[in-house]
Write a structure and sequence with these properties.
Layout: H1 4-13, E1 23-38, E2 45-50, E3 61-70, E4 82-87, H2 97-110, H3 114-118, E5 123-130, E6 144-152, H4 155-166, H5 180-193, H6 196-204, H7 213-224
Antiparallel strand pairs: 1-2, 1-3, 1-5, 3-4, 5-6
Length: about 230
C-alpha cells in the first residue's frame, strides 16, 4: 500500500470537475429590449419595451437581449423553451456576462456581424454557462448565461448534433432505454448538484428525452459512484 501523501495526490489529480454542462439545441430567436429604470435609487423597477431601429437610449435606459431557443421542437415532451436575458454591458472595472461570455461566443460562431446572423433565426448549439458574478438560486445552482458553440446550416444538422449528444429523445420512444451518452450526462448532473430528488424531477419532466426515468437514474447513479 502506498504512502498517504501519494494516495492523496492521486485522488486530487483524478478528482471530477464540478458542475454540469447543459447544452441546448434548437432554433434561436433574439428579442432586443430596452430596460427603463423607474423609481429612486433604493427602489428601482425595470420596465421592458421592444427596441426600435434607430432608437437612442437615455442614461436611464439599458439594452437587454432575450435569447430564446425552441428546445421543444426536437422533444415535444418538453413544454418550455430555453430562455435567458443578458444586459448588453461591456466589461470594465466590473466583469460582465455580456463582455466575458455571450458576446465573445457570438463573435466566435457568427463573426463580427453576428447581429444580422442571429436575427435570421438560425439553428444553434448553446451552452448554459455559469454567470460571471457567481449568482445562484436557493439550491446553490448558478444562474446560466448563453454561450454559443455552433451554428447549423439546417434543422436536420442541428437535430443530428443533438441526437449525437443526448440520443433521439423526441417523444417517440415511449419511455425507452437511454443511450450511454445520456447516462453519462445525468451522472455528471448527479455528482454536481448532489440532490437525487431534483435529478428525478428533471428526468420525469423529460429534460433528457422521453426515456424511462427510473432506469436512467439508476444507471446514472451507478456510473457516478464508480
Amino acid at each position: 500500500m502506498g504512502k498517504m501523501d501519494e494516495f492523496l495526490q492521486q485522488q486530487a489529480d483524478e478528482a471530477p470537475e464540478a458542475g454540469y454542462i447543459n447544452v441546448n439545441y434548437g432554433k434561436l430567436t433574439v428579442n432586443p429590449q430596452v430596460i427603463t429604470w423607474t423609481g429612486d435609487k433604493d427602489n428601482r423597477t425595470p420596465v421592458r419595451t421592444p427596441l426600435k431601429a434607430g432608437q437612442p437610449l437615455t442614461n436611464q435606459q439599458t439594452l437587454e437581449l432575450e435569447f430564446d431557443i425552441d428546445i421543444s421542437e426536437f422533444n415535444p415532451a418538453l413544454e418550455f423553451s430555453y430562455t435567458r436575458r443578458v444586459n448588453v454591458k461591456k466589461s470594465g472595472t466590473i466583469k460582465t456576462d455580456w463582455g466575458e461570455i455571450t458576446e465573445p461566443s457570438l463573435i466566435d460562431v457568427f463573426g463580427k456581424n453576428w447581429a444580422k446572423a442571429v436575427m435570421a433565426q438560425p439553428y444553434v448549439e448553446v451552452e448554459d454557462a455559469p454567470n460571471i458574478a457567481g449568482k445562484a438560486g436557493k439550491t446553490g445552482k448558478l444562474f446560466g448565461v448563453p454561450k454559443f458553440l455552433r451554428v447549423f446550416a439546417s434543422k436536420a444538422e442541428c437535430a443530428e448534433a443533438r441526437e449525437e449528444r443526448y440520443g433521439k429523445g423526441d417523444g417517440s420512444s415511449g419511455g425507452g432505454i437511454a443511450p450511454d451518452a445520456t447516462v453519462k450526462q445525468v451522472s455528471e448532473l448527479i455528482a454536481s448538484i448532489k440532490n437525487d430528488d431534483t435529478v428525478m424531477e428533471m428526468l420525469n419532466n423529460k429534460s433528457f428525452g422521453d426515456y424511462d426515468a427510473k432506469d436512467l437514474f439508476d444507471r446514472a447513479k451507478e456510473l457516478s459512484e464508480e
